[in-house]
Write a structure and sequence with these properties.
- The complex is a heterodimer.
- Chain A is mainly alpha-helical.
- Chain A has 10 helices and no strands.
- The radius of gyration of chain A is 23 Å and the shape is flat.
- Chain A starts with a helix and ends in a 5-residue tail after the last helix.
- By secondary structure, chain B is of the alpha/beta class.
- In chain B, β7, α6 and β8 form a beta-alpha-beta unit.
- Chain B has 2 domains: about 170 residues, P-loop containing nucleotide triphosphate hydrolases (Rossmann fold); about 80 residues, no CATH class.
- In chain B, the strands form 2 sheets. In chain B, strands 6-7-8-3-9-10 form a 6-stranded mixed β-sheet, sandwiched between helices. Chain B has a 4-stranded antiparallel β-sheet with strand order 2-1-4-5.
- The chains are: A mainly alpha, B alpha/beta.
- The interface between A and B is medium-sized, with 18 and 22 residues.
Chain lengths: ~250, ~280
Amino acid sequence: MKTLDRVKNIATPFVFGVLFLALWESAVNGFDLKPYFLAAPSKIMEQFLNNTTRIWEATAVSGSNALVGLVIGTILGIAMSFILSRFRFLSQLITPLAISLNAIPIFVLVAVLNNMYSITSEIPRRFMVTLVVYFIVLVNVARGLTQVSSIQVELMRSYAASEFAILRKVRVPNAIPYLFTALKVAAPASVITAFVSEYFGGLQNGLGSRITSNIANSKNAAAWAYVLGACLLGLAFYTVSIILESLTRKGQTK
Amino acid sequence: MSAVVNTSAVEVAGASKIFNEGTANQVDALLDVNLTIAPGEFVSLIGPSGCGKSTLLRLIANLLEPTQGAISVNGKTSAQSRLDQDYGMAFQQAGLFDWRTVSKNIELPLELKGWDKKKRAVRAAQMLELVKLEEFGNMYPWQLSGGMQQRVAIARALAAHPPLLLMDEPFGALDEMTREYMQGELLRICAETSTTVVFVTHSIPEAVYLSNRVVVMSPRPGRILEVIDVNLGSKRSELTRAADGFFRSITSVREALRGTHADHVASTAIRGVEDR
């Protein structure tokens, strides 16, 4: 019964995906849609397979930008959340700023940054990813450090525990699931930010730039092939964050 | 242990507690409370919601400071006894740490006392035996039932062998059957470890069944209305719950809570016992 359920769980979206692609393919062929309007999945796959090296190179550029930003943003976010949870008045100063920065499309800042740095620099994009990741991690981890059970804190005080012991034995373990929630959101966001940042000029070597330039040259199928590369990169980031999370849980589910 | 024979386990002298003093939200939680508890005694605090019984417990635990008055535990100030970990504490929620196994939860107070790993493991195993959860040491708290979690919380509170146990409605969230079983277990454990207990509850039968004395408190500002001796002997069992003395004590506590005394009421007939 259980294996049947599992097969169903996997088969249903798979069948749906195959049907969707078949429908797409037959729509392109049946209505004789021009390649510059909508490319057929088979053509996209062909482009993808013919250009694997170039797509891989572009993916590596965008991917490393995303990864560098993700790592730095996560480290800075964690560090800042510790400071904020220790000094509440700072959190009152910074939280509104963090929220408002999250509310505006901060990608546009990359245009300004491109002006500040040389046109051949990867720094503006990496900085952009760092900024996006930083706030996601900061808000979530700070919540995990502060929203601990009051019973557990009272209990620790009844053991005459120091603030540092409470941090180490209650706040940090409580914040770990929050960190992984943040990473699950931040990992795909870092990839998206890395792509979108490429639309604002600078080096033309990443996936985002390739997609734009191919569309500009009416190479629709090639553009879609790069989109497929982008999807795979986003999925890879997401998968890694899920695996990391399951490793830390060690079989406890809640 | 550290308690000298003539020292009382808990001494509350003229304690008052006012929250948010001088503001619009001022709450007079406790007013001039005097209470002396002897070593080995089991004392319950009972009263309507908001009567300050939990506040009184937290004053004894030094989790709160009294606005007036003084509190001593085992002849020391309450602050010193907290630093010395002279008491264990258990709450209505078990408050176990989800990321620690049952054994590691019990070891927590010992870790903070700086015990080495081996000594901690030995004590945790003893405590698991005491609360009859020997096979569950390697499980995580969320894999246990509510009653089992509460037993782990009691084991944790007693792990360092403190002479005093402070409990804030520890069985309040349990169903009636589990609750009665846990009451029996608590009495057994306290008898085996000769621990003094201060027990906050809002259940009259629970207070009477467990206690040597029941402290009845008034609505806010909390004062002690009456202290009722429960003469049911030291050995209590399920038969105690059917004994005449049990019902008589329940009636006395209820009348004290209502502010009427048995002597002033024409009929002392039992008015039916609440089920919790």
